[in-house]
Amino acid sequence: MFSVSCPKCGSKDVMLLPTNEYVCKKCGHRWPMPQADYTWIEVEIKKAKLFEKYIDAPVDSCEELVSQLLKELDEKNARLLAAKILLQRAERRRTTPAELKKLYDDAERCFQ
User: Fold this and answer.
1) What is the DSSP letter of 35?
2) How far apart, in whole angstroms, are the C-alpha atoms of residue 23 and residue 30?
């Protein structure tokens, strides 16, 4: 369970007001309740949409795929998604061991 303490005096005798503020019962200090950051959800939804868009696209190399994904994602997310796409492609295709190794190696380059 999450425990709140007063940032001024350290007391744990804190109350939440209907105004979404905390108030310390010991010293009377008030501070706003932190708001949750949900921007990560937007990024995850965007990544899911991009995965569907590029999973069957004719882009075959990590570099090409990353350059396309960088138009909508930061570099870290673009590289991770590119690797995921390439690995999924490798698993979907019926390839020879040599082709499979090439696909896995290309996906590995995305992490660098």
Assistant:
1) P
2) 4
Query: Is there a single domain that holds both residue 43 and residue 89?
Result: yes
**Region class of 81: left (phi > 0), else alpha (psi between -120 and 50), else beta:** alpha
Average pLDDT over residues 19-40: 92
Q: What is the mean pLDDT of residues 4-10?
A: 95
- Are the beta carbons of 30 and 39 closer than 8 angstroms? no
Q: How far apart are CA 77 and CA 80, in angstroms?
A: 5
Q: What is the pLDDT of residues 46-66, one digit of tens each?
A: 999 999 999 988 877 889 999
Q: Are residues 45 and 31 in the same domain?
A: no
Domain extent for 55: 39-110
